[in-house]
Amino acid sequence: MTHGGDVVPRAEALEHVWGSAARDNVLDVYIRYLRSHLGSDSIETIRGIGYRFVG
């Protein structure tokens, strides 16, 4: 959310939040959780790159 509108690559988000020990699917699960609380339009998936907060 601090990047407000910038595309954050998946690898950068994983490393920044969970560190090197994180599994790849943990980000998918957490994005789904955030969308359920913030609304499905709040986080945009940029295929092949990462995510963008639009809310």
From TrEMBL:
InterPro entries for this protein: OmpR/PhoB-type_DNA-bd, Sig_transdc_resp-reg_C-effctor, WH-like_DNA-bd_sf
Entry keywords, A to Z: DNA-binding
Transmembrane segments: none
Domain of life: Bacteria
Boundaries of every OmpR/PhoB-type domain copy: 1-55
Keyword DNA-binding among record annotations: yes
DNA-binding region per UniProt: 1-55
SUPFAM superfamilies: C-terminal effector domain of the bipartite response regulators
Protein name, UniProt field: OmpR/PhoB-type domain-containing protein
Species name: Demequina litorisediminis
